[in-house]
Amino acid sequence: xxxxxxxxxxxxxxxxxxxxxxxxxxxxxxxxxxxxxxxxxxxxxxxxxxxxxxxxxxxxxxxxxxxxxxxxxxxxxxxxxxxxxxxxxxxxxxxxxxxxxxxxxxxxxxxxxxxxxxxxxxxxxxxxxxxxxxxxxxxxxxxxxxxxxxxxxxxxxxxxxxxxxxxxxxxxxxxxxxxxxxxxxxxxxxxxxxxxxxxxxxxxxxx
Length: 207
Prior knowledge:
- The protein is of the alpha+beta class.
- About 40% of the residues lie in helices and about 25% in strands.
- It has six helices and six strands.
- It has helices spanning about 30-40, 120-140, 145, 150-160, 165-175, 180-205, and strands at about 5-10, 20-25, 45-50, 65-80, 85-100, 110-115.
- The chain has a five-stranded mixed β-barrel.
- Helix 2 (about 120-140) packs across helix 4.
- The chain is globular, with a radius of gyration of 19 Å.
C-alpha cells in the first residue's frame, strides 16, 4: 500500500518496474535531501521519467510522464561528501494526480498519487508463462533468461527494465495495462527490432 503522496525522482533515462532492483548514485543537493528524508521515514521514492524538452527547465519542475513506479530503498551507503549510493526495489506503479506545493525548506518534488494494482491471477500466470517462452526464443544470446530463478512475471519486468531500449519505449511498457499486455508489447517490440536488424543486414550485404 503506497502512501497518498511521495517524493518523486525525475530522470531523463531511467524507468523502474515492479519488483526489479535499480542502483542509483545520488549527488545533486535536492536529491541528497530527498534520500535523507526517505531514509528517516518510509524509504519510498517514486521514479518518474522526464518528458522531452526537460533540458530547458531541469533545475525547476520540468514535465514528467504521469505513470511512474514507486521504489523502496533496500540499501544505502552514505559517502563522506553527502552523496549516496542506493538500491531501490520496485514496489508498485502509480499515477500522478498532482504535485504537492513545495515547502520553502524542501528542494525536491512531491506528488499526490494513486497506486495502480497489477494483480497476478492463475490466468495471468498462464499467459506470462507462454510469453516467457517466446521471449527466451527471441533472446537466444542471453541464456540467463532460461536459467534464472525469477518468476515468469518478474522476468518480464526485469527485461523491460534492463534491455537496451529507449527510455520512451520502457515508459510505454510501464504504462501497459497489466502484465500480460506488457509482456505482449515487449514481444512485439523485440520482434520489430529483430526484423529491422535483419533488414539492415540484408541491405548492407546487398551493397
